[in-house]
Amino acid sequence: MQAFRNGIVLCALGLALAACTETPAPAHSETEALPAQAAAVADDPAPGAGQPEVAVPEMPIVPAIVVPQLLGVSPAQRALEGAMAEVLDPVAGVSVAPARCDADGALLDTGATTHPDAPGALVRNTEAGLIRIEADGSGSANFEGGLITVNADGSGTINGVAEPDGSEAILRVEADGSGSYNGKSGLIRLDGQGGGTWNGEHGLIVSNGDGSGSWNGPQGLVRVEADGSGTWNGPHGLIVNHGDGTGTIGPPARPVKMPPMPPVPPAGRFPPLQVLVPPGAACGYVVTLDDRVLFDFDKSDIRPDAAHTLDVFARALRGVTSAELDIRGHTDSKGTPAYNQPLSERRARAVLEALQARGVTHRVRAHGLGESQPVAPNSIDGRDNPAGRQRNRRVEVFVRA
């Protein structure tokens, strides 16, 4: 039964949040790009003599709407998550997810899509419940008070214990990728065409699927139109972006220069429930630390304020049994592969040294994968996707069980 539960995995995407203030690299350095719009110092298009410049704060990036990780969690992973509870937060950029390996024991691409298992029905009646999976991918599982149904077209429901911590959720998926999720992460609705809403602890996020949308959250109300125009009503007052390189900040409304707002990422679709039986075997878990948790822009030296996160992580690792750790650095596609590859290697090595300095004695190796394994698109329909690039810039620690 546990093997079946370890196979029930919905591929989760990470959240992207703005508020980075790194300084862009010199023109000759091909590097990762900022996860938010570059800060603009604006002035009156026709300023008078001695008129002071008006500083325009960075406009927040509307986070992507994502499907939270459900099921497939081993007791060891739950123990690790419990030990890391104070730093685990998808918005803050730290998460834990199940890992699966191929027949040779190699970690499957963490950004890959999973598929149904080999044909043939499976029927198992255990103390935990009854499981049946047909050759066409349909089937059901009734265990521990929870009910999972899967149809041949990928539609179905999960109703009951579904969260990694053992709490309940209701998930409904249609064949076109639309559906809804209602659980501890809030209420998520997707239309299967790129539109959707997420109402949770970080506020209300709306994506219309065409680059427009809104975010009503801790930074105020942000509205984005498909042409790059929009507004931000927050701690700096009302900022209006015209989408043509100009805007106003006030009141009183003062004309300023500012870049167009980045598009809101499309909400995507719920994965079909054929992914209930992914290829490969459960082999541990992957801890993802997005680059803003650890590094300044274009740097591989760990920031001083990352010490607490690494302290908690190292303490948790010392309490779990693992055959080895594999630290993997990743970048987005901004810049050249020749630049991004060594940057990813330096960052992976920095994390290795930081964990060893904190008493982690597992057998461990570190290597960089550059931009070769994205977990989100770096661009959408030819337009830059800062939220996707932010998710791709990460360090993963594969904890092999």
- Helical run tally: 6
Mean pLDDT: 74
C-alpha geometry: globular
| C-alpha Rg (nearest Å) | 22 Å
CATH architecture of the domain at 73-114 and 278-401: 2-Layer Sandwich
Give a count of the beta strands, DSSP E runs of length 2 or more.
25
Beta-strand level of the residues, as a percent range? Answer: 25-35%
CATH topology of the domain at 73-114 and 278-401, anyone? 60s Ribosomal Protein L30, Chain: A
Please write the CATH class name of the domain at 73-114 and 278-401.
Answer: Alpha Beta
**Given the helix and strand composition, which structural class is it?**
alpha+beta
How far is the N terminus from the C terminus? 18 Å
Q: For the record, what is the CATH homologous superfamily label of the domain at 73-114 and 278-401? A: OmpA-like domain
Which percent bin holds the helix content? Answer: 10-25%
Sequence stretches where pLDDT stays below 50 over 5 or more residues = 1-50, 112-119, 274-280
Strand order of the largest sheet: 4-5-6-7-8-9-10-11-12-13-14-15-16-17-18-19
Main sheet record: 16 strands, antiparallel
Multimer state: single chain
Keywords:
alpha+beta, 16-stranded antiparallel sheet, 401 residues, 60s Ribosomal Protein L30, Chain: A
